[in-house]
Design a protein that fits this description.
The chain has 11 helices and 9 strands. The protein is of the alpha/beta class. The protein has one domain: Phosphatidylinositol (PI) phosphodiesterase (TIM Barrel, Alpha-Beta Barrel). An 8-stranded parallel beta barrel has the order 1-2-4-5-6-7-8-9, surrounded by 4 helices. Strand 4, helix 6 and strand 5 form a beta-alpha-beta unit. The longest helix is centred in the N-terminal third of the chain and has 19 residues. The protein starts with a helix and ends in a 10-residue tail after the last strand.
């Protein structure tokens, strides 16, 4: 009897685990317009030149070369979605203020690195791309403030080109599940423990194991390519047939190694030799 009870408990744990990592399985939105592209991480950029990351020039170069684009958005102090990765301006501008502490007018007075490029708005980037290539839009949201979703979603609603959204924050996916359920949404994740990421240990553990999937129901997973053999990732790929995005491939060797494992490749710092389109 004891062995039977133990077996039932084990089976129950396995079933619960599979339910917790289960993505959206019914009525998944069409991803065909996003497939078959390579995605330039923050555009085709050079932070030492005149086209730094997440700049209009970097995005134009990606469009001209026929690559999809991955970009990052967050809010300015006056609630405008701007395209910028870091929470602070330090790395890209030398200034120590947070993006959220400055208005759009103040942000656009600051040049990126040594270039003449400034921080663009989401609307400016969408106008430049004009639907020529697909976009992966990463929502940069700290903790519980989902104002970015409320501000950016209407802008993206009006955009005629192909795009999807992704975020490390599961609350962003939950917001999109509730308010824009037909928009393709992706869960960003990593092996936070091995990468020694700072944050709530429990949340990072759950996120690394994709244990929020059962609630947020992502349409794809974007995972650090170094950890492609993570168990939850393998189950989502094999059992649930969930599309996968690899971030961020930075050399030809890693590209060749991962190109058949992932449905979407996000690349940076080099140009892949066999561009797929």
């Amino acid at each position: 009897m004891g062995g039977f009870i133990s077996l039932c408990i084990l089976v129950g744990i396995v079933v619960l685990y599979l339910l917790l990592i289960m993505p959206r399985m019914i009525r998944r939105p069409d991803q065909s317009s996003l497939r078959g592209w390579l995605y330039a991480h923050r555009g085709i950029h050079n932070n030492q030149g005149d086209a730094p990351e997440n700049s209009l020039k970097a995005f134009k170069q990606a469009v001209d070369m026929g690559y999809g684009i991955e970009l990052d958005i967050q809010l300015s102090k006056d609630g405008i979605p701007v395209v910028f990765h870091d929470w602070t301006l330090t790395r890209m501008t030398g200034k120590k203020q947070r993006v959220s502490d400055l208005t759009l007018a103040e942000l656009q007075q600051v040049c990126l690195r040594k270039s003449e490029q400034t921080i663009p708005t989401l609307e400016e980037v969408l106008l430049l791309v004009g639907g020529k290539v697909p976009l992966i839009v990463e929502f940069k949201v700290e903790r519980y403030d989902l104002s970015l979703c409320e501000k950016a979603a209407p802008i993206l609603d009006a955009y005629k080109g192909a795009y999807c959204i992704e975020s490390f924050n599961p609350l962003v996916l939950l917001w999109y599940k509730k308010h824009r359920n037909r928009v393709v949404r992706g869960q960003l994740s990593d092996n936070f423990q091995k990468e020694m990421q700072v944050g709530n240990p429990l949340v990072l553990f759950l996120l690394s194991k994709l244990l929020f999937n059962g609630i947020t129901k992502p349409d794809f997973i974007a995972y650090h390519h170094k950890y492609s053999d993570t168990l939850s990732l393998r189950i989502c790929r094999k059992l649930y047939r969930l599309p996968m995005a690899a971030w961020t491939i930075k050399n030809q060797y890693d590209y060749d190694k991962n190109r058949m494992r992932y449905h979407y490749i996000i690349f940076d710092s080099f140009i892949p030799l066999d561009k797929e389109k």
